[in-house]
Amino acid sequence: MNFLNDIGVQLDEVTCLAIAELLQSPSMGEFTREEWKRGMAGARCDTIPLITEHAKKLRERIPREPELFRRVYRYTFPLSRMQGQRNLQFEIAADQWNLFFTPDHGGVAWNTETTPWLDWWIEFLEGRGKKPVNKDLWEQVEVFMRKSLEDEEMKWWSPDGAWPGALDDFVAYVQAKRGKGSEMEVE
């Protein structure tokens, strides 16, 4: 915690997870000496001021660079799992989505002019019983987020696509909330 304070990073921001990814943290708040050295050398950071500057740059880059965002997002899945578990507990997944999909926490705003996607996604999953989140669903939510921001009408959506079942059901949920039901065109 002192380290994060020293470099100006808060626990409740995506930059904290980017630092964990940089250092290949095996679990939240844990860093091995070897990975620390390798991560800092790769970032060319060997002093607190340099690490602080690197963290500032990460904070700026994460929402603007999809590949960096995706790398940190995907790394967060194993980092956030409880020891010995294959899936993320719903509450942990929801907390992480609230970090990654809101600009207040250094992520990308997952909402469009007519659709509060993140709010509806969490509401939808809560209505399904807050089931654990597997790796495939975790990864595909980020892909779905990007596509829904590009085209909120979901003209890209196909019920025959290889999406996890929860996302298929979420599309139907969104259609129902919009009052379009099955009349919405899908390819």
TrEMBL record:
Source organism phylogeny: Eukaryota, Fungi, Dikarya, Ascomycota, Pezizomycotina
GO cellular component: ubiquitin ligase complex
Chain ranges of the DCUN1 domain: 1-175
Gene3D superfamilies: Cullin, PONY binding domain, EF-hand
Database matches in Pfam families: Cullin_binding (PF03556)
GO biological process: protein neddylation
Protein name, as recorded: Defective in cullin neddylation protein
InterPro entries: DCN-prot, DCN1-like_PONY, PONY_dom
Protein source organism: Penicillium olsonii
Molecular-function GO terms, alphabetical: cullin family protein binding; ubiquitin conjugating enzyme binding; ubiquitin-like protein binding
Function: Neddylation of cullins play an essential role in the regulation of SCF-type complexes activity.
